[in-house]
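Q: Predict the bound structure with magnesium ion.
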Amino acid sequence: MKMNQKTSNLDYLSAFIAIVGPPNVGKSTLLNRLLGSKVAIVSPKPQTTRNRVLGVYHGEGFQMVFIDTPGIHRTRTHLHRSMVASARATFSEVDMIAVMIDMLHPEDADMTSILKELKKSEKTALLIINKIDKGSPEVLLPIMETYRQRFLFDAIVPISALTGDGVQGLIEELKARLAPGPVFFPSDMKTDQTESFLIAEIIREKIFLFSRRELPYSSAVTVQNIEEIPKKTLMKVSAKIYVESESQKAILIGRGGRMVKKIGQSARKEIEGLFGIHTFLDLVVRVEKNWSKDPKALKRLGY
Ligand code: GDP
Ligand code: MG
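A: Predicted complex:
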């Protein structure tokens, strides 16, 4: 222990907080809203978040480190298995757990295993009921009552991650439960994700947006190179999209390259918005057979 540590640090409050819940309830949307910038991929299709995303909320004299996890599911493939393991491990690592549900689907099948893990963990836990913009108090109140009677949560907080309604109240509820702790991250650090990871995630989000069925789930993105050209205030990014078969590759490229162009243009716009710099994005599509089932390939692609 360092002896010259400032005593004022003893007043500092901090915690690691996991955001868990079934797919599609709005975990990534909330994380992005809390941080005021995009650090997590958001998609109307389930299970888009493959890796854990860490986001830091900086307040006056306190810090909350959020971990947006992939959901806990019973699934068979290696990709899904590694996602489940990562969600489980998170429960033991954090100080607090925020379980999120969708107001319109309060009894999602995934909740059983989440609540089981929660009980085992014996951690401080909040229930976030999200998407209250989609329904009335008559829908909300019975859900709150049902969960209250289960005595699993220290607080129940209804919000809309999309509109921001209730989010300030959520921050207050979390803050009230912080314990003295270290300054984990410097005040200018919002996420542990690298530039290349954020770019890869944006590209992956666009694949989800523009392609259908199994294709987005069979796609992985890696960023090969980022080069800044200072005088031209331009960033050159080369990225590869991996799919599992030649036919998927053909679909993703599209007639006359139309599909990959659409993905690239949309991703480029968002990358420019995030980093504030003109961007040249070079996208290449490659076949990597069965990557989602091959543990070695998963590792190589960063999962
Ligand atoms: P995750 O899988 O839990 O991370 O969910 P996402 O954050 O990716 O969100 C899934 C979908 O729900 C996206 O289409 C979001 O725009 C949408 N969504 C998230 N929060 C809200 C909300 O408060 N209200 C409404 N109406 N939609 C939301
Ligand atoms: Mg997500």
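A: The CA atoms of residues 125 and 245 lie 43 Å apart.
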